[in-house]
Design brief:
The structure is a homodimer of 165-residue chains.
Chain A (H helix, E strand, L loop, with lengths): L8 H9 L4 H10 L5 H6 L7 H13 L3 E5 L7 E5 L1 H4 L2 H14 L4 H30 L10 H17 L1
Chain A binds a DNA duplex (30 and 30 nucleotides) through helix 3 and helix 4.
Chain lengths: 165, 165
DNA sequence: CATACCGGTTGCATCATACAACCGGTGCTG
DNA sequence: CAGCACCGGTTGTATGATGCAACCGGTATG
């Protein structure tokens, strides 16, 4: 799809990430810190097929949303990172998560992160994006800044533990 | 698609509006105030096919995002309205528009509204959603509240005029 | 030296989308 | 009251996207 249907920002966004899998891949990279093909393939509940995952990783790479690099520690491994446009999808995912949490039959464990992101607001999203810039782009950030990712992950794990009890 | 892939709010949102047309239909209803089948069919630049439009209107209705009612003024006409969940997609579209405007080759005329929505922030979105509740749900709102829709439309038309000059 | 893991690829079935042509009923106009 | 444009779709067909399972050669590990 090279020819664009229109120059509308919403339309163009949909042409790039308007399908059922792209944002889930980005979600897993963002909130699950999954960086390798196998992690993305087997790590999430939705069960993406390997050919679809390969296709999405290629498209997102070509669109400049993520980047692909060989892993120095293992000749065969490839590490995927969020590029700056991918990092800036945090507010989109936050908005989509808030909406879904309100209007759809979400599970408690999987929606706790959306709830925290909603309560934290844009200030929290910015801190999170700075953290992602450090993790994925190697951009240093001031010491002492807490980890939003750890905060979200801990809350998620606590909900899992509560559910099992 | 009745069986859900997971209870994640982002995933569930994508299962409902994660395709290339649903959000465009909602966009046209929201920002273009298009309420009839033909308006939606012929009004936008992207050129949706009539069977796809019919399918999306039906799905969105079944999902409770929009509603469908006969038009009293014309026996054959059907009027589509945003339901509350549809109105609450405003922040999602604003986020998606901001992102697209930054990272994709948008046209100036079609991105002015995204720019204004971004600058206006959540306060403006709330005013806009109140206005949509009046237009689509008949919920009265305080007099003297300005029209965000008119503001956005005027800015858009001004950009069109500038482009033609 | 065997085994598990690495990022994918291939073939095939099925589902969604795209395009154009068409439908019967309704309202407006001359 | 005849003709015509418009109403919300439907139908058929072609093409593309997706889903599924099996498989690939190269690589690290015990």
């Amino acid at each position: 799809m090279t020819e664009k249907r229109s120059g509308c920002p919403i339309n163009l966004s949909l042409e790039v990430i308007g399908d059922k899998w792209s944002l889930l891949v980005i979600r897993d990279m963002t909130f699950g810190n999954r960086r390798y093909f196998r992690e993305l393939l087997t790590g999430s509940e939705e069960g993406i097929a390997s050919n679809i995952l390969a296709d999405r990783l290629q498209r997102l790479t070509e669109a400049g949303i993520i980047s692909r690099a060989p892993d120095p520690s293992h000749k065969q491994k490839v590490i995927y990172s969020l590029a700056e446009p991918g990092i800036q999808l945090v507010p989109v995912m936050a908005a989509l998560g808030s909406w879904g949490r309100r209007h759809l039959p979400v599970s408690r464990e999987l929606s706790i992160r959306a709830e925290l992101l909603e309560r934290g607001g844009p200030a929290m999203w910015e801190r999170f994006m700075d953290e992602l810039r450090e993790l994925h782009l190697g951009q240093p950030r001031p010491d002492g800044a807490g980890s939003v990712l750890a905060e979200l992950t801990e809350a998620y794990l606590a909900e899992i533990a509560r559910a099992e009890r």
